[in-house]
Amino acid sequence: MSQTPNSNPNTPTMTTPRRLLFIASIGNKAPYRQTRHSAGHLLLDAVKPLLAQSLPNTGAFHETWYSPTYMNESGPKLVRQLESWATRQNELVTKLYGQAGHTAEGSSTRYPTTLVILHDEMEAPLGKLRVKRGGPEAFSLRGHRGLISICETLRGKGLYPARGKATLDLDILRVGVGIGRPPTREKGAVSNYVLAPVNEAEMKAYRGTAESVVQIIGEELYK
């Protein structure tokens, strides 16, 4: 969908995205960047080139970002980046496209923000997407340390669930790409499995979900 800035700054057009999207992948940094636990990063590698061609003229409304830390440390840096970007972009898109809307009392409202988290999903078969909305109040995090770190940081800052004068109107969309499970449940099997290098067939399976993820992103922009 295409869009142009409004002549009336208070009335976004039907083709103007309705929210901001911070699309963040979590995983591990080198030397574990090409492992199953970093499937979120590998998925984002495939998604990024498709965004501009599939969602033209929406660049001001979304941002892609790779977590630079190890998985269990994902929260603090991700949340700082999210908050900084969303605050800045809210001001920018309001100037370009008008306010997001108005409350019943007539006061202007900011654009809501969705944090889209791309991550590995061991509870799904290889290359299958599992999409869930919300944090631990909606679905179990199943011991995923990256998701736990993010949700704990958001809660600590009062951003999600919103508390007090939260700086963002925030929603969470979790997009997990299936990596399958190890064949055994012996001690150490899971860590060995998720930290093993991705083979060619697995990489192809992750990349094969990219178009579906872009479609999910497009639908979320106009939600």
Give the helix/strand layout:
Elements: E1 20-25, H1 39-54, E2 62-66, H2 74-97, E3 101-102, E4 108-109, E5 113-121, E6 129-133, H3 145-156, E7 170-178, H4 189-194, H5 200-207, H6 210-221
Parallel strand pairs: 1-2, 1-5, 5-7
Antiparallel strand pairs: 3-4, 6-7
Helix pairs in contact: 1-6, 2-3
Description:
This protein has 223 residues and is α/β, with parallel strands linked by helices. The chain has a single domain, classed as Peptidyl-tRNA hydrolase (Rossmann fold, 3-Layer(aba) Sandwich). It is built from six helices and seven strands. A five-stranded mixed beta sheet has the order 2-1-5-7-6, sandwiched between helices. A two-stranded antiparallel sheet has the order 3-4. Helix 1 crosses helix 6 (210-221) and helix 2 (74-97) packs across helix 3. The protein is globular and about 55 Å long. The two termini are 14 Å apart. Mean pLDDT is 90; it is low at 1-13 and 102-108. Pfam families: Pept_tRNA_hydro. InterPro entries: Pept_tRNA_hydro, Pept_tRNA_hydro_sf. This is Peptidyl-tRNA hydrolase.
